[in-house]
User: What shape does this take?
Amino acid sequence: MSAEAPCDGPREVVIAAADGAVLLDVAGPLQVFALAAKCGGSYRVRLASPDGRPVHTREGVQLGVDTALDAVTGPVHLLLVAGCDPAPTGTALVPLAQAVRRIRERCTVLASVCIGAFVLAEAGLLDGRRATTHWAFCRELARRYPQITVESDGMYVRDGDLYTAAGVTAGIDLALALVERDHDGALARQVAKWLVVFLQRPAGQSQLSVRGRARSTRQAALRMVLDTVAEQPHADHSLAAMAARAAVSPRHLSRLFSDVLGTTPGQYVQRIRVEAAQQLLEAGDDPVEVVAKRCGFHSVETMRQAFHRVIGMAPTTYRDQFQKGTFHA
Assistant: This one.
């Protein structure tokens, strides 16, 4: 079935979940589509489990479901598989994976949130495709299913009619993007406004702040350098300047970055500056020239090149994604 096939009547949205489901992985996307329907969107939303029995979520809340997956008949516009806990194992995923595989051919769009990607993978539906999952499980997904190209640093990944989202709140971003795909940006923005969320984050936005990825270190010299870069992205953070500040040689500082962070000093500084610029572009209306200067870029062109290297788009495009809510995949 074509992803762009005309739709008669409300679009059928089926959220698939099993015992151990993460409550927000289920509730977040479900809330987006249900609210979109109330705001004029064409959706009928149902929650389904493999056997039609209530779902016991990881958080201890029991969710009643509308139907069993095998009882879902007719065309399905969107089948979205919610994540679950604990860490996925092949045998635990099999019943849900089998049920999803049986109705896949009737789905226009297939999606997953968090560990839901493991369900799609177990069903063989991600073979040869690009996909993502929660950052904590990307390596495991790639190890267990080497036929998948795992992209570990995005909110969600689109590969044709297949969408996979990172963990938890990224499911809301994905659902908003799908609402925009089905209708328009105005409806997606209206839903986001009612949910008091910040539109939808672009697909390519990093799952984690680079500062958050910087592992704790007992190396006092490195710790001081990292803190200074984060607090003053506009300052001189050349290798020589940072080494002098830390009272170590440039060679030793480079080795610390490599050993502790797995990157170079220059790459780390660039990521911090891009991240600082992202925050300014999201929240303010300063011209890009001002943003570039405040974040330590020598010019707008330097910032543009850094943005393309780090997040794959220009600063103006990034700002547009946030302020206009335009879909990006």
Notes: The first helix runs from residue 23 to 38. The CA atoms of residues 231 and 272 lie 10 Å apart. The chain has a mean pLDDT of 85.
